[in-house]
Amino acid sequence: MSDVDTRAIPAARTLPKAPLANRLLSTRAGGKMVADYWENLFTARERGAKVVWYNGAAINPILQNAGVEWCHGEAFGARLAAMHLEGPAQQASESYGYINELCSYARTTLGCALLTKQEAAGKVEMDGAPGIPDKAVLASRLPPPDLFVNAYAGCSTGQQWDEVTYRMFNRKLPFFKISYPLLFGNDADAGYLRGEEWHNASRYVAGQIHQLIAFLEHETGNPFDWEGLRESMHYIKKAAQLRVEALDLCRSTPAPAVFWDWVASIAPINFLPGNQDLVDYFAGVKAEIEQRLADGVAALPNEHYRLAFDGIMNWNKVGWLANKFAEHDAAVVCGRYTHNSFWHEPHLIDEDDPILGMAQHYLLCPFNHSARNLAEQVLRDCESYGIDGIVFHATRTCRSATNGQMILAQMAQRRGIQTMYLEGDVADESFYKDELLLSRLEAMLETIDVQRNRAA
Questions:
Q1: Model pLDDT, residue 21
Q2: Which residue in 154, 198, 405, 435 is a FRET match for 41, CA 20 to 30 A apart?
Q3: How many domains are there within the chain?
Q4: Residue closest to 152 by CA, chosen among 86, 56, 246
């Protein structure tokens, strides 16, 4: 028997596993910018500012230069989910009568509207529901709206979302709605950024943006700052160009940055103010990627597969997914949501007369196209990024995001690109199963290996 008293030896501590995904450090600056934006919004009422709640397209440059503060509903829903704080808002909306099959973005922010009303009224309980738990504090911090703007393309739920919120606030607030035609792409000359349908739709939406500006002038009593809009769009165009250039750098093998890095960079380009800070952020992202290329640093040290991700991100699982794909040496290098949205065609923006270019970007919502137009973009990216397989995220409560995925998968398979389906959701983790993703991912990667062996 040993004469050592083992009771005095502390038990070995299991250290947390280090992340495998070599994420960009520059994106942390974006996280601080986003946090500062929301903290500023939470105090809007105390500063006497008017507040607009809106959903859909990036109309924030319009709101910025109308002199109002803005709350983007989807963005706040995504933020809560990424912080794992979406539960209280979703529970509030479900107790109000909205089933869990409703778009989880909408369900989350409808719950926020309910909690915001309670907070404003000094109440801590809903009818027939328990008191608001502590972690609901963030969900109830939105300032009550003074007016609503709906700017949703490609989704019928999104087009009704603000109407429902409007009713929650007793139909007493001004409400403006922009209508975006779906780009069917059926005409002989139709296609991505071309054809009579494209040009007619662009002019139609541009006309509505002018009407929105008149509406905001009437509601605020202040003239619209056209020079300020030109300046904002100057910064947004410059930031967007830097972003696109950085995306293009990731065509290199191995990739210096991956889809999960671009997910972390959505918020700044989607709804933050157009200013020099935005430009500096994307300049920093591009500079880090360039330095990685110069130093031979990869996002995955052992990149073996190159994948695309189709569908909206599951915000509850960003870090987990990044590491899980990295464990399988699978670099997700592009995606429809990150690469074909958010001011991704900066050449369309005319800084002197920006309205038409803004309207065109709003039409380019990745869920506002026919399968024909989608295939033109997705398959182009697959070719240019050297994609082996596509992960289709079939979002349970967002059918507009899943429309066309079966057709896209068939077209990809005919080109020798493997595909898999993952059922999940954008902001409701209960629809997601880790085991299902892993089994299907491993099956697809094995098929890619077999395909490579045959080719060899």
A1: 80
A2: 154
A3: 1
A4: 56
> Is the pLDDT assigned to residue 126 strictly greater than 70?
no
Q: Do the Cβ atoms of 65 and 235 come closer than 8 Å?
A: no
Chain centre to alpha carbon of residue 212:
24
pLDDT at 265 over 90: yes
**Longest Cα–Cα distance in the chain:** 89
Extended strands (E) in 6-121:
51-56, 69-72
The span from the CA of 152 to the CA of 154, in Å, is: 7
The answer to whether the beta carbons of residues 33 and 281 sit under 8 Å apart is: yes
DSSP H helix total and E strand total for the chain: 18, 8
Cα–Cα distance for residue pair 247/269, rounded to 1 Å: 14
Question: Are 162 and 54 contacting, i.e. CB atoms less than 8 angstroms apart?
Answer: yes
Q: Could you tell me the CA-to-CA distances from 97 to 90, 110, 116, 419 in Å, in that order?
A: 11, 11, 17, 37
Q: Is 321 domain-assigned?
A: yes
Give the C-alpha separation, 456 to 448, whole Å.
12
> What dihedral angle (degrees, nearest 10) is formed by the CA atoms of 235, 238, 239, 240?
120
Cα separations in angstroms, 394 against 106, 318, 397, 455 = 17, 16, 9, 30
Q: Is the peptide bond before 88 cis (omega within 30 degrees of 0)?
A: no
| 396-430 tens-digit pLDDT | 898 888 888 999 999 999 999 999 998 999 999 88
Residue 8 lies in a domain: no
CA distance 335 to 354: 27
In 196-329, where do the E strands start and end?
305-310
Determine which helix (DSSP H) or strand (DSSP E) holds 109, and give its type and residue range: helix 104-121
How many CB atoms neighbour CB 7 within 10 A?
Answer: 6
Q: Which domain holds residue 341?
A: 27-455
Other Cβ atoms closer than 10 A to 144? 16
Task: Output the pTM of the full model.
Answer: 0.91
Length of the chain equals 456
CA distance 178 to 408: 29
For residue 45, the SS3 value is coil
The verdict on residue 137 lying in a domain is: yes
Q: Does 413 fall in a domain?
A: yes
Dist CA 59 CA 53 (whole Å): 11
- β-bridge mates for residue 393, sequence order: 422
Question: With 0-12 CB in 10 A as exposed, 13-18 as middle and 19+ as buried, what is 289?
Answer: buried
Q: Which long-range contacts (CB under 8 A, 24 or more apart) does 5-14 make?
A: none
Half-sphere exposure at residue 103, Cβ-oriented, CA atoms within 13 angstroms = 24
pLDDT at 18 over 50: no
Phi, psi angle pair for 424, to nearest 5°: -155, -145
Tokens of 320: 């987990």
